[in-house]
Specification:
Layout: H1 9-16, E1 34-39, E2 44-47, H2 49-54, H3 74-90, E3 94-102, E4 108-119, E5 125-134, H4 142-146, H5 149-158, H6 165-171, H7 176-187, H8 191-209, H9 214-220, H10 226-237, H11 241-248
Antiparallel strand pairs: 1-2, 1-5, 3-4, 4-5
Length: 250
């Protein structure tokens, strides 16, 4: 018996639609929107042009089958994978999470990331899909984030120097108390925590990629001395810097 045509015009439209992947072409033409899809093993199965450019790639074939560990410092990759697993296990979307992502230029930048679980035809979890947007170009009120753009750029450019909350507040044209409240509201962390994250991220990169003395890395990344750096690093990573280098140096 022939199948009856859907009565709903939308159902009829989608039932007549050809190759579903043509819809994903739209994401190649959206500026500053980063699309990715991964399977259950965390391997990239789809990436739009912006996502490829973020990692310094030219073709999708260069990314398919690779994982976050191929593009990010190990500690950061582990956090991304942990979140992917959480989305797949819960079966629920995770919206507008603030992530610090390092691109191919080795500089970390903030993005808002939304992920949804993907299911096969039997309803079983088979991976995740996600989109990222730069934090200063996102959400219902981009100006709220844009006001803090000079702050983020200043920290990235001068993380190795002494930075006071009052200096950052001036860049945002806010009082110190207003700045601290606004920063915590938007990023769920204090400006001091953000500065520490950036310094530790840059230090991890140095430990992974070179052989500079730990004391020199500590000073270059804005820590008072090696002892201060060791305490902060152990608290964040669960191991001292030298152990991290032995484990993750490339």
């Amino acid at each position: 018996m022939p199948r009856s045509a859907p009565s709903d015009p939308a159902e009829s439209f989608f039932a007549s639609l050809g190759e579903w992947r043509q819809l994903l072409q739209l994401f190649d033409h959206l500026p500053r929107v980063y699309l990715f899809m991964k399977d259950r093993q965390g391997r990239f199965m789809k990436a739009n042009r912006s996502e490829l450019a973020l990692h310094g790639l030219k073709t999708e074939a260069e990314m398919i089958g690779r994982t976050d560990y191929d593009f990010h410092p190990p500690a950061m990759a582990a956090q991304y994978v942990e979140e992917d697993v959480r989305v797949m296990k819960s079966g629920r979307p995770l919206c507008d999470q603030v992530w610090l992502v390092m691109g191919h230029d080795k500089l970390p930048r903030w993005y808002l990331c939304t992920k949804i679980p993907l299911r096969d035809r039997q309803g079983r979890s088979m991976g995740i899909a996600g989109v990222m947007r730069p934090f200063d170009h996102s959400g219902p009120s981009p100006s709220q984030y844009g006001r803090l753009t000079p702050v983020m750029e200043h920290v990235l450019a001068h993380y190795g120097q002494r930075i006071e909350a009052s200096d950052l507040a001036k860049l945002a044209h806010l009082s110190v108390s207003q700045f601290q409240r606004e920063f915590r509201r938007l990023f769920s962390m204090s400006a001091g925590d953000y500065l520490l994250k950036v310094r530790l991220l840059m230090a991890r990169r140095r430990l992974e990629e070179g052989g500079d003395p730990v004391g020199q890395i500590a000073l270059d990344c804005g820590f008072y001395d090696q002892s201060h750096f060791n305490r902060a690093f152990r608290a964040q990573m669960g191991m001292p810097p030298l152990d991290y280098r032995r484990r993750f140096q490339r």
